[in-house]
Amino acid sequence: MDSSLSAIPWLSALIFLPLVGVLAVLLSDHRNPRASQAIGIVFSSATLLLCIALFKIFPNTGEMALKEAHSWIPSIGAKYLLGIDGISLILVALTALLTVISLLGSWDEFGERSGIFVMLMLSLESGVIGVFLALDLLLFYIFWEAMLIPMYFLIGLFGGPKRFYATTKFVLFTLFGSLLMLLAIAALANFHQQQFGTLSFALADLMKVDLSPEIANICCFAFLLAFAIKVPMWPLHTWLPDAHTEAPTAGSVMLAGVLLKMGTYGMLRFMFPLFPIVISTYLPWLMGFSVVAIVYGALTALAQEDIKRLIACSSVSHMGFITLGLFSFTAEGSLGGTIQMLNHGISTGALFLMAGMIYHRTNTRIIKDLGGLAKSMPILSTIFVFFCFSSIGLPGLNGFVGEFLIMVGAFSVSKVLTAVATLGIVLGAVYLLWMVERVIFGPLKAGGTTPRHGVNPGNVNANANVNVNGHEHGQADFSHADLGHADHGHADLGHADLGHADLGHADHGHADLGHADLGHADLGHGSDHYSGSDVVTRTADRDLNFREFVALLPLIVGVLYIGLHPAPVLDLARPPLKKIIAEYNLKVNQNKSLPQPNGEEGRK
Amino acid sequence: MIPVSHVFIIAGFIFTIGMVGIFIRRNLLVVFMGIELMFNAANLAFVGAGRMHPELSVISDGFASVPFVMAVAAAEAAVGLALVVAMYRATGGTDTDLLRSMKG
Amino acid sequence: MTAVFFMIFLPFVGALYNGFFGMYFRKLSGSIAATVMFGSFISALAAFYINSIAPIPSFTLWSWFPINDSYTADIRLLVDHLSLAMAVMVTGVGFLIHVFSIGYMDHEASPERFFSYLNFFVFCMLMLVFSANLLMMFVFWEGVGLMSYLLIGFWYYKPEAAAAGKKAFIMNRIGDTGFVLAILWLFYHTQTFDITVISQSVQSLDPFVIQGVTLLLFLAVTGKSAQIPLFTWLPDAMEGPTPVSALIHAATMVTAGIYMVTRNHALFNHPAAAFALQVMLVVGALTALVAAAIALGQNDIKKVLAYSTVSQLGFMVMALGVGCYVQAIFHLLTHACFKSLLFLTAGAVIHGMHQEQDMTKMGGLAKKMPLTAACLIAGALALVGFPLTSGYFSKDAILSAVLIKGHTFAWATGLLAAVFTGFYATRVVWLTFFGEWRSPHPPEHVHETPWVMLVPLMILAVFALGAGFIGRPEGSGILYKFLEEAVTQNALAEQLSNAQWLMTIIPGLIGIGLGLFFYSRGQSPQPMVSSILGPIADWFVKKLYIDEIYAFFFVVPTKKIADGCSYLGDQLLLDGFLNSWYPMTSLWGRALRRLHSGYIQASLASFLAGAVALLAYILVRG
Questions:
Q1: d(CA A96, CA A545)
Q2: Domain check: are C443 and C564 in the same one?
Q3: Do A389 and C177 touch (CB under 8 A)?
Q4: Are residues C486 and C587 in the same domain?
Q5: Can you tell me the ipTM of this complex?
Q6: Which terminal Cβ of chain A has fewer Cβ within 10 Å, N or C?
């Protein structure tokens, strides 16, 4: 690589560019939705462009490239260590892409509070990219926790009616695991000090630490728990449907698309290299749990009545495939798992995005209230079905590539488990096609063409949030916008609604009556309350608009590209995986040559 | 020459008076005065300790600490009085029992 | 090579055109799709001809899927006599059906969507046929399944159509798990997906693997080719437009299973596959019989034909079960002609009757649409196996092969199925074209089929009647010679005796005779059959309650388990466990909050107490 290129701190730039964006939003008028959204899109696009530039200059040797090492907290030996390899690059690019897309997808969703929303999204992006680049465990931990904060507020501020429950559950689950991980990290650093004389949190250093089996077991379990909660693996998954259902569209997209991958990424990057011998004894169990997750997640998805919740449950199933591939720990399986991380991010991210679009148009996500959308919005329906098939794993689209590689890998380890996992493929078709049948096909239902409230649902969300904020004081401190509305009190709902309508949606110009209705309906009566209302407007049955189409286009291209020509992406992930597997096998085999009975054979 | 122990005894008395004042008085202004007394008691102890060990440095650490404490006390008084005024405006009184928003 | 390329990609281009630009020229979409298909058909013939001069080598289109360092699955076309024979059939029948569809879909609001799907289906089917490796075959196996899903649900606003599409896709998926596992298993042992390589290395494989793989592959066949137990999607698939039924659910896609087994015949020829073959023979025979029996009780003309297709596929699977692949392909080809003819004529009738599909509401149509009637009769004769029609030769070939191989029971089952076939075919013809007009609507609006639909029918009728010659004489006819290069099968040891030979042709005639006996009296037919068979007839009308049985044993329990997982598992058990921590935590909280009186002095006091305690500790320790 050109030395002048390597002198630039690319990776720090990736992490901090979004933070600069946050600053920019702060410094500009963050109550101006257009301006802050524009700033958000500019900075996230710039990050994405930086990623694309990285593809060009990045040497894919399997080793960590473009390393940055600075002293950070010298007294405890923590260093600012960044590095990137193919796996990180894939996930960083996914993060950057999905941030742009979710910002684009929620352009007019939050009115006056857009500034806060954009800032949260950008800091989330920064944190997640940091997780994918950090090579020092303390730094990794800090990014891991730092990204929780914006996510907490994204759900807590912009979510649905049960958002406090959901966001608290989400944070508690994650914290529970990650605090144990922190302890394990501290223990590892401590053992490093005992054996080498200095404290260090660097991955490369900690890999050299020689642990007694008991200690390794405990530490490995702590890491495993933290990552398994994040993935989430069965039976630690129950935070996921709640968080997804309550999160705003952009939050769901980021959560499903990127945040879940932090768990699987952590396993690959830290758990396998740090505790190869211990993890080798866990593998059969973990594969079993993965298969349970596949089938169980698919079954729960079958029972859901809310589109978003269904997709969330399907994520459990799909993440089960990813972990099945990783824990088979074969060349094919781990490769499939890695690619499937990307695929799941694309397909499920797109499905969440489209679920949000459907909600915008119909003001409902309940499957039985929808129907016949193909008639009223053919383009949206076509693309929705397309992504469903991508998620089902139709050959030729992206999902198949990953799933098939995973099964090739898993089959060489356990035929029975793979056979059970194929049940998940069948069930995947069942719940998604059943949903498509009820939502997209069939006769038009009222929810489809003439939603009862019939207003551009961009307002719906804004109104709902405002109104609820008026009631709940705990929330009013979070932002200026909220404070402003809290001042109005909850007596004057119509007023608050109007304020939003004027700011965010001046171009639509709906009847005020509609807003007033919405406010009430969303407050607590449920949508059925106004089913007799004759408020109908023309925006209800509009098809995809240009902005939404632009947001979806990269995902469509991604689905087709990975489906038809996966080789470049696979080549990106293959060298680093080879390195990880080789190191793992070396240690496991060394351990096996010692007279110890608990070494599980790892395949090539 | 007054023995150093006397200095400490007096400092102790003043400190105790300030502390008792804090505990038994409900008027925030008086509580502040108690705090000031405690500050000054501590200052007195510093001076005494400085005299006890003059060999430690050219200007003993004990003496050096006194101006710092005085500065801090002055600043604290300014902020504290401002808080008292703010409290009076918010609650209409200066009774410490009015401030119970920390009640669990 | 160029010819093969054009043959495959012309429909693809047509699909893209109609998909993206067709809505601007709706009137033209059908003609363009048919033109493209004509080009494809000509290319197929050209490829056929070129290959007969100098064999076309297999070639790679693009490198698709690097599985690991040593093997990359390519999109690679395998050109041999088997794939060419199939390709000519697919493009030929496909072309005719496209032409027919121009007329059939002329009242449709968005024909471009239909023709786009249909073209894309032909593309997928051709890719499937030319697949050189199993993974690629699976890709397009699913691809045709997808197009089938979309085309069955073409009238998506009909709930039945949407449900039928979903059912078809899911039942196929169940079968496809078999395909996937078979591919994985083979890959695990051979490290390749390449069909020719696998075929060559069959001898080195573990017999257990062969047995497992062949059974798994057959599971895939039961899905795609609608065999027991996965056949129930095919009758439901009749919700799609009739040309779709003709092309996908009679001529091409459903026969993909037969083709796939023939393509992998090396596996099935292995002695270890004997058990799988036995299963295939039994399943094929049973399917042939059961489906024919159900067909007896159906009033919907398309449903009858659908069950008839299932039944005929059963015959083909029987042929596979005795290792007579060429006979199966022979029947596949003739069946493609006569069954698509039957479907298209049924479509013409439905079109003429303005979407009436119930045969009990037809009758006497021969006077209104004589040419259509003639075509339907030709197709029905071929279906029944009337001597010298194409179906006669191919079905005869299968039944005699089964008998020669010594499976008398399967042979007898096949004969019984043939009797039923004769009966329901006669029933269809009679109820539709003869007897009294039974519809409540006046017959005036019924019209003869327009030419654009009629010409394809006539061409198909010629083939349905005459195509049998390619399989004569038995074992050494044109088809046998032609497929010798691609398919290795043991020649049949002996010929049938004359008596046995007669036994194979008579059942069809008996069926026809019975049918004529019942229906020529002119009354409405259903009661008479019912009176003879009693409550059993009702079973046939209700499709032997198989859908209900599946619903009871599979669908409902799955939903129950799903609900159980969601509510019992997630919400009660897992979340319940987590929430059970809440009372304890909150108890602690409530206990400890009493310490926080909020009085400043109280806080200070605890602060002081702490300081004193600390001091005391230091002093004591100290």
A1: 23
A2: no
A3: no
A4: no
A5: 0.89
A6: N
Q: Cα–Cα distance between A151 and A129 in angstroms, integer? A: 14
Q: To which H or E segment does residue A73 belong?
A: strand A65-73
How many contacts, defined by CB atoms under 8 Å, are there between B and C? 30
pLDDT at C610: 93
* Partners of chain A (3+ Cβ pairs below 8 A): C
Examine the domain organization and report whether C527 and C591 are in the same domain. no
Cβ of C594 within 8 Å of Cβ of B99? The answer is no
Please state, in angstroms and rounded to a whole number, the distance separating the CA atoms of residues A451 and A364: 8
* B32 Cβ contact partners less than 8 Å away, ≥ 6 residues apart: B77, B80, B81, B84
Interchain contact, A441 vs C162, CB within 8 Å: yes
Of B22, B26, B100, the CB nearest to C598: B100
Question: With contact defined as beta carbons under 8 Å apart, do C40 and C6 qualify?
Answer: yes
Nearest Cα of chain C lies from the Cα of B75 at a distance, in angstroms, of: 21
Enclosing domain of residue C562: 549-621
Q: How confident is the model at residue A500 (pLDDT cuts 50, 70, 90)?
A: very low
Percent of chain A with pLDDT over 90: 29
Which architecture characterizes domain B4-95 according to CATH?
Answer: Orthogonal Bundle (1.10)
pLDDT at position B13: 95
Q: CA torsion, points C113, C115, C120, C123, in degrees to nearest 10?
A: -170
- A408: closest CA of chain C, how far (Å): 6
Q: Which residue of C has its CA nearest to A442?
A: C157
Interface of C with B in 268-307 (CB under 8 A): none
Q: What's the pLDDT tens digit per position in C99-116?
A: 999 888 888 888 888 999
The distance of Cα C471 from the centroid of its chain, to the nearest Å, equals 25
The last residue of one of the domains, among C495, C518, C541, is C541
Torsion, CA C177, CA C181, CA C183, CA C184, rounded to 10: 140
Q: Tell me if C471 is assigned to some domain.
A: yes
> What is the pLDDT confidence band of residue A515, given thresholds at 50, 70 and 90?
very low
Chain A residues in contact with C139 (beta carbon < 8 A): 395-396, 400
Those of residues 537-576 in A touching chain C at CB distance below 8 A are 564-567, 570-571
Q: With contacts defined as CB-CB under 8 Å, which chain A residues touch C170?
A: 426, 429-430, 433
Among candidate residues A445, A452, A449, the one with its CA nearest the CA of residue A522 = A452
In chain B, domain spans: 4-95
Q: Which pLDDT does position A532 carry in this prediction? A: 35
Contact check, Cβ <8 Å, B96/C599:
yes
Q: Is residue C416 situated within a structural domain?
A: yes
Residues C472 and C571 in one domain: no
Over chain C, what is the mean pLDDT?
86
Chains C and B touch (3+ CB pairs under 8 A): yes
- Per the structure, the count of domains in chain C is 2
Q: Where are the beta strands (DSSP E) in A385-522?
A: none
Longest Cα separation, chain A: 79
Contacts of B102 in chain C (CB under 8 A): 596, 598, 603
Task: Tell me, yes or no, whether C455 and C374 share the same domain.
Answer: yes
User: Would the pLDDT of A490 be above 60?
Assistant: no
> What does the pLDDT read at residue C532?
63
Whether the per-residue pLDDT at A345 is higher than 70: the answer is yes
More confident residue, C478 or A352: A352
Query: Chain B residue closest to C604 (CA)?
Result: B23
Residues C402 and C515 in one domain: yes
Which of C541, C566, C601 represents a domain boundary (last residue)? C541
Whether residues C429 and C280 fall in one domain:
yes
Q: In C, which residues are within 8 Å of A367 by CB distance?
A: none
Length of chain C: 622
Instruction: Kindly report which listed range (B15-29, C303-317, C551-565) carries the lowest average pLDDT score.
Output: C551-565
Question: How many CB pairs lie under 8 A apart between chains A and C?
Answer: 134
Q: What is the pLDDT of residues A402-427, one digit of tens each?
A: 999 999 999 999 889 999 999 888 99
**Would you state the pLDDT for residue A126?**
93
The whole-angstrom separation of Cα C268 and Cα A78 is 63
Asked whether B and A share 3 or more beta-carbon pairs under 8 angstroms, the answer is: no
Whether C79 is in a domain gets the answer no
Residue C66: per-residue pLDDT: 84
Q: Is C301 in the same domain as C283?
A: yes
